[in-house]
Design goal:
The chain has 2 helices and 7 strands, in the order βββαββββα. By secondary structure, the protein is α+β, with helices and mostly antiparallel strands. It has one domain. The strands form 2 sheets. The chain has a 5-stranded antiparallel beta sheet. It is globular. It starts with 22 loop residues before the first strand and ends in a 6-residue tail after the last helix. 14% of the residues are buried. The C terminus is likely disordered.
Amino acid sequence: MDIRKHVGSKWLKGKDLDSDDDTVLTITEVLLDEVEDEETGDVEELVGVRFKELPKKMLGLNVVNAETLEGMFGWETNDWVGQRIALHFDPEVRMKGQRVGGIRIRARKPPASRSKKATKGSTRARKRRSAGGDGD
């Protein structure tokens, strides 16, 4: 494996999310991208979702997350653009029979008033607010 392919990856990973709460993001684009299978070297197409709040990252859609979005917004991906979704890290996600953890999309629209960015400081700001600080 060439580590340079994975450092600074364009793909959103669980560690990019605040592990304590949902991360609410706004979909800006749904596109096809190519990924290389590490085991076989085959190139496959993967549907990626880009977000306003994380413009340099995208979420690669697995079957479960694609079906969740389809259930929320319909089969036409153009209708997903502008929609807000809540992501969370699920440690029970399995890949090839192994528990690896992964990102899941909540099967509900987030409340309009609770916008939260995916930043490491968001937990700290939330703690300051709850302690009586302004959190900004």
